[in-house]
User: Fold this.
Amino acid sequence: MEYGRLLLAANTCTNLTGARDWYDLIESHLEDCARALALVPSGLTRFVDWGSGGGLPGLVWAALRPDWSLQLCERNGKKAAFLEEAARRLELRGVRVHARQFQEVVNDLRPFAQTAVARAVEPLARMLPKLAATRLPLLWMAGPSGEQEFWALPEAMRARWRIETLGTYALAEGCCASRGAG
Assistant:
C-alpha cells in the first residue's frame, strides 16, 4: 500500500504510470505484476528490469520477494530518482537503480542478472536486437497481444529466438470491465 501511495503521489509530477487512481493502479498494474510472479521459473532470483519506469514489476517483485536481487534500469533521471527514493523508503535492500539504458549497463551488473524482465517498454522488434548481445533470457510481460507480436516479427528475426514458456493469467474477475478497458 505504501508503494502505491508513493507511486500515485509522484505520478502527479512525473509520468510514471498510466494509472490515475487506486482502482487502475491496483487492478491493472500491481495485481498484474503480482500475478506474473507465478510464471517466473523456479531458481531465478536475480533480475534486471528493463525500462523500470515507476517500478513495475521491479519494485513490486522486490517487495514480494525480498530475497531476490533486482537491478532497475531507467534512463529517465526523474523516474530513476523516484525508484531510488521508493526503494529507500520501502527498505528494499535487494534493489539497485541504474539511471541509464538497459543495454549500457546490463553486461556490467554485479551480481549478474539471470534474466531480463520487461513490461510495457517498447515493441519486441526493437527489444530483441538490443537483448541479443546480452545472451539473457527475457521474461516479457506483453499482455494478450504478446504472442501475436512475436509471430508478426520478420521470419529472420523469429528464427533467432524461441518461446520456451508461454504463460497466461487473468486479472480479477471483472477487472477494468466497468471502466471500459480491455
